[in-house]
Write a structure and sequence with these properties.
This protein is an all-alpha fold. It folds into two domains: about 5-220, no CATH class; about 230-500, no CATH class. About 65% of the residues lie in helices and about 5% in strands. The chain contains 23 helices and three strands. The protein has a three-stranded mixed sheet with strand order 1-3-2, with helices on one face. Helix 1 (about 5-25) packs parallel to helix 4 (about 75-100). It is globular and about 65 Å long.
């Protein structure tokens, strides 16, 4: 077969991926904003049941088109990307056709909140222009909420829709922030239009929540996937062929090993003190107030970045940008500590946003979560070399097939891998930092156990909450809020620590395979610049196309 014929398959894959991206951006304006495509910042998604049914039909058509590409007409990389595209769409179809959260849990507040917050928070255009788009999106809120009423099926899940009602309670704060942002920026007429739109949006939220409370009258508590469908989902996640029982074994093994490591580290710190006492001391060692904590996050983040450069651990893109901000008020109940929002791929000057939460409901104990040890671990995970570096590098790969891939076990796993790797390479490796790292990892090991057992229907919310409290020391309300989120995100929560385990396995495989030629920096760069892919696909690229992903 000629080179031209071989490349025909690659070209077809690229065209299909661009077609799928354009379709997603057209039908999901909020997702388009997230991507950095700003042609529809004045619109919100369609909320009707018919819109979801059309999306299912469109994804089926995409699946058939990707499958129809003859692997023989593709390069080595093209064959891998063909399989990746098929896996990505199959995964999306599971959510739409099998799990069907969209007809059992209202997600109207997610669409509304994301659509407004992304335009407000990201400075891709002058504020006045963004406020004009926000006004149009606010004017679309009543329509969006009316349409979302058509989605909810006859058996909504009580817990999931109670969570939607909780989200609705944060909307007045967001609307207030948007209105306040317009003062002194918009002229009088534009400001009045913004205020009217915000008021009507708030009234629509009130009407929608009243309607949703009525739907709870026929709500059910039956939400687990069950063994058969959970196994099917795992099969669509490309987890190196791991089944649920094997993953559960990894969770239990990791939990035991991490708890033992924390005990040993506590003895390093003080052989005569209990773990609880050591933890209390570590949490008490922090900045005096939140302003100082925010500065400590910034300082630690930049120290970590310098360490990567000094130790030659990875290639940092020359134009990556990140800013650290205080979490907006309306997000503080759902982001009690810190979080990261990736740089939009298609923005002219993409920047990551690292948000840190001062407190929830004015709780003074919240400052204890911003100890110096916690600040170090969180900044590694969220910024360098964690999410910010990984996602900034991934955005540089030209493949849209890879851009549209779904691989939380790599994205979240890389964040956790970064925590351990940086300690191995001498960054903040004193016992108090390692103790905090093990504490956070124990929580992620619990997620593996609970993800499997909850969604196979083996335990319920109460038992899962008790398990989390007993293993982590979380307060009951915090643990229950965690478990509530786990109930509608099957296989996502286990992705953190399982992903780290799989990356470490891949690193060891590469060390053995390459011997003296192995380079930690090259290993990291191959992962970082190949895109956010399932780890099994990273392995294939390293073996079948080792020159594909190099730092740029």
């Amino acid at each position: 077969m000629s080179e031209r014929e071989t490349l025909a398959g690659d070209a077809r894959l690229a065209a299909l991926a661009e077609e799928r991206l354009r379709r997603i951006a057209r039908t999901h304006p909020v997702t388009a904003t997230w991507f950095g495509i700003h042609t529809q910042d004045d619109r919100l998604d369609a909320g009707t049941r018919e819109a979801v049914e059309q999306e299912i039909a469109d994804e089926r058509a995409s699946f058939a088109a990707f499958e129809a590409v003859d692997p023989a007409t593709c390069s080595a990389v093209g064959r891998i990307e063909r399989d990746l595209a098929i896996q990505t769409v199959r995964r999306a179809l599971f959510d739409l056709e099998v799990h069907r959260v969209w007809e059992r849990r209202s997600t109207a507040m997610d669409v509304m909140g994301d659509g407004l917050f992304l335009v407000l928070a990201r400075e891709f255009a002058p504020l006045a222009a963004r406020l004009t788009s926000l006004t149009s999106r606010l004017e679309a809120v009543p329509r969006l909420l009316d349409e979302h009423r058509t989605r909810l099926g006859p058996r909504p899940v009580r817990l999931w829709n109670e969570l939607e009602l909780q989200s609705a309670r944060g909307m007045p704060a967001l609307l207030g922030e948007i209105v306040a942002a317009g003062r002194g920026v918009l002229d009088q007429r534009a400001q009045q239009r913004l205020e009217r739109a915000a008021w009507r949006a708030g009234a629509a939220v009130d009407a929608f929540t009243a309607w949703l409370r009525e739907q709870l009258g026929h709500a059910v508590d039956d939400w687990p996937l069950g063994r058969e469908r959970y196994d099917e989902l795992l099969g669509r996640r490309a987890f190196d062929g791991l089944g649920a029982d094997e993953i559960l074994d990894i969770g239990h093994q990791q939990l035991a090993e991490l708890k033992a490591a924390r005990v040993a580290t506590a003895r390093e710190i003080d052989p005569d003190a209990s773990e609880a006492t050591v933890l209390d001391r570590i949490k008490s060692d922090g900045p005096p107030d939140f302003a100082a904590a925010l500065e400590a996050y910034r300082e630690t983040m930049w120290r970590a970045r310098r360490h990567i450069v000094d130790r030659d651990l990875a290639t940092i893109p020359p134009d990556e940008r990140i800013e650290v901000r205080e979490t907006p008020h309306f997000l503080r109940n759902v982001l009690p500590f810190a979080a990261y929002m990736e740089p939009p791929r298609f923005d002219e000057h993409p920047s990551g946003i690292y948000v840190v939460t001062p407190s929830v409901d004015g709780d003074p104990r919240a400052m204890r979560e911003h100890s110096y040890a916690s600040i170090s671990n969180t900044s590694i995970h969220e910024a360098y070399p964690g999410h910010h570096l990984q996602l900034s590098c991934a955005n540089r790969h030209p493949s849209l097939v890879r851009f549209l891939a779904d691989a939380p076990e790599f994205v979240e796993g890389w964040g956790m891998y970064s925590e351990q790797m940086m300690r191995e390479e001498g960054f903040d490796d004193a016992p108090r930092f390692r103790f905090n790292m093990y504490t956070d990892a124990i929580w992620r090991a619990c997620r593996i156990v609970l993800d499997v057992r909850l969604h196979r229907g083996e335990i319920g919310v109460d038992e899962a909450t008790d398990f989390l409290v007993g293993q982590t020391g979380f307060e009951g309300p915090q643990a229950r809020a965690e478990v509530h989120r786990y109930t509608y995100t099957p296989t996502y929560q286990l992705s953190y620590l399982l992903g780290k385990v799989l990356i470490l396995r891949l690193r060891e495989e590469e060390r053995r395979r390459l011997g003296p030629a192995f380079s930690l920096r090259r290993f990291h760069d191959q992962l970082l610049y190949a895109g956010s892919l399932p780890i099994s696909f990273h392995r294939r690229l390293m073996r079948e196309a080792p020159a594909d992903a190099v730092a740029v």
